[in-house]
Amino acid sequence: xxxxxxxxxxxxxxxxxxxxxxxxxxxxxxxxxxxxxxxxxxxxxxxxxxxxxxxxxxxxxxxxxxxxxxxxxxxxxxxxxxxxxxxxxxxxxxxxxxxxxxxxxxxxxxxxxxxxxxxxxxxxxxxxxxxxxxxxxxxxxxxxxxxxxxxxxxxxxxxxxxxxxxxxxxxxxxxxxxxxxxxxxxxxxxxxxxxxxxxxxxxxxxxxxxxxxxxxxxxxxxxxxxxxxxxxxxxxxxxxxxxxxxxxxxxxxxxxxxxxxxxxxxxxxxxxxxxxxxxxxxxxxxxxxxxxxxxxxxxxxxxxxxxxxxxxxxxxxxxxxxxxxxxxxxxxxxxxxxxxxxxxxxxxxxxxxxxxxxxxxxxxxxxxxxxxxxxxxxxxxxxxxxxxxxxxxxxxxxxxxxxxxxxxxxxxxxxxxxxxxxxxxxxxxxxxxxxxxxxxxxxxxxxxxxxxxxxxxxxxxxxxxxxxxxxxxxxxxxxxxxxxxxxxxxxxxxxxxxxxxxxxxxxxxxxxxxxxxxxxxxxxxxxxxxxxxxxxxxxxxxxxxxxxxxxxxxxxxxxxxxxxxxxxxxxxxxxxxxxxxxxxxxxxxxxxxxxxxxxxxxxxxxxxxxxxxxxxxxxxxxxxxxxxxxxxxxxxxxxxxxxxxxxxxxxxxxxxxxxxxxxxxxxxxxxxxxxxxxxxxxxxxxxxxxxxxxxxxxxxxxxxxxxxxxxxxxxxxxxxxxxxxxxxxxxxxxxxxxxxxxxxxxxxxxxxxxxxxxxxxxxxxxxxxxxxxxxxxxxxxxxxxxxxxxxxxx
Length: 794
What we know:
By secondary structure, the protein is mainly α.
């Protein structure tokens, strides 16, 4: 068992599965939680394109941030400024952060004060003086370019718009500064400001276009600010209905500026083939056409490899080829490596890693395209493409070809060697039919050298162990022993017992004995439960855990003295009953019947062993059709009632520390009977083991025993109480089965079902034959629904 523990520890079930970084959240789960990403998307070295890798969590992959919180993409505006300053020997002592403070943070007022350190530094050179003048002008226009959403993202609008008079003032001022500026770099920035100012005036779209043509385009300074101005011009064209020209300009911005790619992409709108053809007609060369194909390829419903082929035919050196191909293979992984869900159970337990018919139908065509890419003389990074083809072949179960490509790979690049190892090991794992000692050694060695894909490995390993009926190891690949508390599956427990017994692991054996005893206790097989509880020391106590989100591990915790510890300290009130139906309040205020006090073997605090012994005794005595048998049946009914989903001690069977409501533990959806025993025989493995609970609803047992007690009781007080509790059972069964308001039972005008008529008959007996009992008077006082019935029953 020590060997087993070491192996399972190496599988590291508490380690998060590897996934390429995704920032932000979407829906109920992160995108990467729904599938296994075995092909590293970040093999796309071009950081400017990484936001356009496939994701459904956010609009863009990574949202420009890496796991350390650092910006992935360089600030193109800052870089352009720094180049300008370096060329003109201005602000040579400033670093990038200081430049950002000057350009992005400094206020208009701080750039006007003579004592400002910025003014002192900039006035040292002619280029600096002209820069200061430009920055002052840009800061004046800043309020008219800022966005405000007033707290609502759908109400984005300009903070303020200039009046016609103000617009004319700033336009004239900008034009004058433009004409008097000797530096083309700064003239370009003035031109950008003029285009943007006109664009944001809304009714000046034509003027914005004219400003671009007169003051930006002639400078031929094609860097970041040029494309920022081009983006503004595209927006103006869009506003006046010139969509094809606008889309073309957005594609140029997308192609040339990493920082503006997202905005250009979201602004690019092609509605139909006519729009597409018109936009394409504006393209002047193959590079521009390649950018258009790339933009179309980023559509969620596009086939990226078709666009790869289109680009390959006209501009094979395009970086978009690799991006589109990686998006495509990530889609394949989503289709093929979708994480198995309990709700997807079928008769085919090998359903994981099965390519869909659509993927297989596309595979031959996809191979042709990738081979054409690999063999094209103008496409570089041949090792990447060989590895890509190998991974595609692996996903489509073309294992021989995958191995051929992997074996031929001679790269020395660390990132490709890492991916080669991942694909190679995944290929090995996918072909395994059995896991023995040698296979365990290989898996252990891989995990010791690579922390990638632990969860995927557990998926396959857990399935293989399950198929070879090594249920204990299969269970532990995804779970902890404590997970068996909610569903003490006997096959898993027996397998673990066999392994623990071989190595004489007494601590684990005791834990498993208790679990197996609890299984039989929940199944009401008291004799078998007693055999296993006899192996559990009287001092046994359970360890409780909570999940620490900071360390991402389960840690042991203590338990309140008022809570159930999972094994012992079970109150004798479990054999009592009462009128009230309140949870999370002291039991003595709810359970007031004291018959159990007459029995020394009941009137004490129990652990599961003594509780089982008491139940065996009650079961034996209840077989007698006498007053003594009636009393035993009555107290046994109290026990069954209390541990049912609506009973006060419903938490005892499931190990919960208190009786707070846990819907998944107390409600069995989609079952035809009162009980639900999870069946994992058709499932791929035990990864979703904790999603279902073993539910045993003993309400019908309680009802039968209350009816038996009412029949054989000679004591009229207890006969009346037994009838009342029988009505409670029937009402609870009615509510559970029909999800209806059980008060309908008490409505004389309501059409009665058989269950309702049964409750009605219990209440009628109580009113007709036992209205003189003290219990009847208490019931009318304590239970408003019974009082209502007594007063309204015809």
